[in-house]
From TrEMBL:
Keyword annotations: ATP-binding, Cell membrane, Membrane, Metal-binding, Nucleotide-binding, Translocase, Transmembrane, Transmembrane helix
Boundaries of every P-type ATPase A domain copy: 104-203
PANTHER family per UniProt: CADMIUM/ZINC-TRANSPORTING ATPASE HMA2-RELATED, CADMIUM_ZINC-TRANSPORTING ATPASE HMA4-RELATED
Name of the featured protein: P-type Zn(2+) transporter
Keyword Endoplasmic reticulum applies: no
InterPro entries per the UniProt record, alphabetical: ATPase_P-typ_cyto_dom_N, ATPase_P-typ_P_site, ATPase_P-typ_TM_dom_sf, ATPase_P-typ_transduc_dom_A_sf, ATPase_P-type_domA, Cation_Transport_ATPase_IB, HAD-like_sf, HAD_sf
Annotated source species: Sorangium atrum
Length: 800
């Protein structure tokens, strides 16, 4: 303020005719600026840092020596406003990160009988019953107790729509209670909870400096040397010291020193707005140059949140309900992707879960602890059996599951294996689209590395089109695969489990799916996708590349203008005072250019279906997809049934096709496709999809004709062959068509790429569709393409 006051005061004095006083005020402002710059240079020297403020020091000193008091005051004022501008730009670039840090919960309300006490968040322990009031931030990770909770997750994930959580559902800290007060059973302390992990990641992000920024510092030193040389040459060749001063005035390398870090931090901040925590500029800059991608399967390419499809009991003294209850009770405090499935299955059966004691999780194996006084182990067969031979029933179950490529979890109680659970884990709907998008932005090789059975891994890999599949890999072997890939180019590893943490740490850029508290995968990763969606990684790469490009563009713009101004000053076309004003304008232009990294750029707003249509399509597909297998099952069964029974099966299938499937496909063609075509643009973007509809209609018409000609007693052997030929073809077309629609609808759904809260995506209000109730589960794209729908192998921890 003093330098600015000196400048304004001196100008006022000159205007009143007091030139000597005005010069004194300008000189005083320049001297203050000289002292401030000198102290900053001294601090840099003491910290053994190379500084470039020496140019400003020489410019102000030279102005005073040459009695260019106005130029000296202008330089001082410009430096002061430049520092303020830098602070504003840096704060704006960090605003999303700062907002996340500022909203960290400080207290919690603990329920003790009828009393509610307020305590510091650090005093919360596992098992505490907490009350989360309306509008409050959830203090720690926990499970909902009592009525359903309505949570706003937009601050963490960018999702604008509040999400309902049923009793027993797990809730992450940092989300906001958007409904009535509800009770929460803590499953982690504050330090172990999701939001605490995110805060630690953000603090790391704020402290990191990108290689590009460090490179800018080195270039700034070279630019300073060039500036001094040009100033000396201008003075020496012309004998006019004023020209040398003018060169120094416009030579400050602020565009390099400010624009590059602001652009990088802006990219980090924009990522945070989209639910992507990047641990600093170095990670962002490395992500922008990534070439090779390695992915885990379970929880990364698949949902990692599967459903229990079967419970098998090996001991007659137990039942399947008790097997599931004990396993879910132990697993309810785990953050492993499969744990939520066990808890959800138990809640669906309305089982009363007990809080475990002494629970301990072993990476790659399973969990152990005590439930109702009984020692329980849940995980792989080897982990559950503790090295002892499996019971004969368990061995037979394991052989069948292995042949089918099924996902299995074994349960042991008091050192005896009593049962096992079978689960199904569908592929993420955004996985194929994400992999294609990554290839478009420069990822040249995609490798799936997993602990799963080769049969399952190869099937998923072929479905998604990855370049290589590495199956049955232990955590140590995953690390070896990452190191091998790093020899070929800058490598990214994406995983979500504890067993992935070593590989994430070994990669050039480790990416953790979902910030589940303080899990080692999130701690080891350089990038954490707070929202559990793979397509956000493609966004992260796009943001990183854009931020890096903007940093370079802004630096080149600013330095180019500075060099032009230096040339003009050297030839006498730019006096020192005017040069100070011009340099400030150049700094402002470079900073404004760098702040573009906060935005999404052209094409950031993508077309989206309206919420009502999206929800209706999700509901219809959730209802129809499980029924598509009826087409294949009938084709497989009819040659083993009596003629009358086969006729009944064919008639039942005909009713499904006429009453459910055909109306759905016709409505899609007549109502949904025109809306999507308007959103996508072009002549007829959904022509291939409509052609598939026509093929479905043709096959169903052939089926109905054949059924109409059928003997009332049932099909003959020749009829069976005709029916099977039609039904197998229809099933294949339906599987492919539904998978394509699932991916298309997911890519256009508001929830998949909504911008920050308050920025709704494009809607389709003209669509003649009515709102439908929200489905219980999200659509599962490509599940209809999976021939192993009865289960898949898990990550190494669960593999039986």
């Amino acid at each position: 303020m003093s330098t600015l006051s000196g400048l304004v005061g001196g100008a006022a004095a000159h205007a009143e005719g007091h030139a000597r006083l005005g010069d004194m005020l300008w000189a005083a402002g320049a001297l203050i600026a000289l002292a401030l710059v000198g102290s900053r240079i001294l601090a840099d020297v003491l910290k053994k840092r190379a500084g470039v403020d020496v140019i400003a020091l020489l410019a102000i000193g030279g102005a005073l020596l040459l009695r260019e008091y106005l130029a000296g005051a202008l330089i001082g004022a410009m430096m002061a406003t430049g520092s303020a501008l830098e602070g504003y730009a840096a704060a704006r670039a960090r605003r999303e990160l700062s907002a996340l840090l500022a909203r960290a919960p400080r207290v919690a309300h603990r329920r003790e009988g009828a009393d509610v006490t307020t305590l510091p968040i650090g005093a919360v322990t596992r098992g505490d019953l907490l009350l989360v009031k309306a509008g409050e931030i959830v203090p720690v990770d926990g499970v909902v107790v009592g009525p359903e909770a309505l949570l706003d997750e937009s601050a963490l994930t960018g999702e604008p729509r509040p999400m309902g959580k049923a009793p027993g559902d797990r809730v992450g800290s940092g989300t906001t209670n958007a409904g009535a007060a509800f009770e929460l059973r803590a499953v982690a302390s504050a330090d172990e909870s999701t939001y605490a992990g995110i805060v630690r990641l953000i603090e790391q992000a704020s402290a990191s400096k990108a290689p590009l920024a460090r490179l800018a510092d080195r270039h700034a030193l070279a630019f300073a040397a060039l500036s001094l040389a040009m100033a000396a040459a201008a003075w020496g060749l012309t004998g006019d010291a004023g020209r040398g001063l003018a060169v120094l005035v416009v030579a400050t390398p602020c565009p390099l020193l400010l624009a590059v870090p602001i652009a990088i931090v802006g990219g980090v901040s924009r990522s945070a707005r989209r639910g992507i925590v990047v641990k600093g500029g170095a990670a962002l800059e490395a992500l922008a140059r990534a070439e090779i991608l390695l992915l885990d399967k379970t929880g990364t390419l698949t949902f990692g949140g599967p459903r229990v499809t079967g419970v098998t009991c090996f001991r007659s003294i137990e039942d399947d309900t008790e097997v599931l209850r004990l396993a879910a009770s132990l697993e309810q405090i785990s953050s492993h992707p499969l744990s939520a499935a066990l808890v959800h299955a138990a809640r669906e059966r309305r089982l009363e879960l007990s809080f475990p004691e002494g629970a301990r999780e072993a990476a790659g194996a399973g969990m152990t602890g005590r439930v109702d006084g009984r020692a329980v182990r849940v995980g792989s067969a080897e982990w559950a059996a503790q090295g002892a031979p499996l019971p004969e029933d368990a061995r037979a179950f394991r052989r069948r599951a292995s042949r089918a490529g099924a996902m299995t979890v074994f349960v042991a109680v008091d050192s005896s294996v009593i049962g096992a659970l079978t689960l199904d884990d569908p592929i993420r709907p955004d996985a194929p689209r994400t992999l294609r998008a990554l290839r478009r932005v420069g990822i040249r090789r995609v490798v799936m590395v997993t602990g799963d059975h080769p049969l399952v891994a190869e099937t998923v890999g072929a479905t998604l089109g990855v370049d290589r599949v590495l199956a049955q890999r232990s955590p140590e072997e995953k690390v070896a695969a990452v190191r091998e890939a790093r020899a070929e180019g800058l490598t990214v590893m994406i995983g979500d489990g504890i067993n992935d943490a070593p590989a994430l740490a070994a990669a050039d850029v480790g990416v953790a799916m979902g910030a589940r508290g303080a899990t080692s995968s999130a701690e080891a990763a350089d990038v954490v996708l707070v929202v559990d969606r793979l397509d956000r990684f493609a966004e992260a790469v796009t943001i990183a590349r854009r931020a890096r490009a903007i940093a370079a563009q802004s630096a080149i713009l600013g330095m180019g203008l500075s060099l032009f101004a230096m040339g003009a000053a050297a030839f006498g076309f730019l006096p020192a005072a005017a040069g100070a004003l011009l340099q400030e304008a150049i700094d402002v232009a470079a900073i404004l250019s760098a702040l573009r990294a906060q935005g999404g750029g052209r094409g950031a707003r993508r077309p989206a279906l309206g919420e009502a249509m999206s929800r209706r399509l999700e509901l219809e597909h959730d209802q129809l997809i499980p029924m598509l297998d009826r087409v294949r099952v009938v084709a497989e069964r009819i040659d083993h049934l009596a003629r009358e029974a086969a006729r009944a099966e064919l008639d039942a299938l005909d009713r499904f096709l006429r009453e459910r499937l055909l109306p759905h496909e016709r409505a899609d063609d007549a109502e949904v496709y025109p809306v999507i075509s308007r959103l996508l643009g072009g002549e007829d973007p959904l022509a291939p999809m409509s052609a598939t509809h026509r093929e479905i209609f043709r096959l169903i018409r052939l089926y109905e004709q054949l059924l109409g000609e059928l003997d009332p007693r049932g099909p003959t052997a020749a009829d069976v062959q005709d029916f099977q030929r039609i039904l197998y073809g229809l099933h294949a077309v339906l599987r492919l068509h539904f998978a394509q629609e699932e991916e298309l609808y997911a890519s256009l759904s508001e929830r998949y790429h909504a911008e920050a809260p308050g920025q709704p995506a494009m809607s389709s209000e003209k669509a003649p569709l009515q709102p439908a109730p929200a489905p219980e589960t999200a659509p599962r794209a490509l599940r209809v393409l999976d021939p192993l729908r009865q289960g898949r192998s898990p990550s190494p921890r669960r593999q039986g």
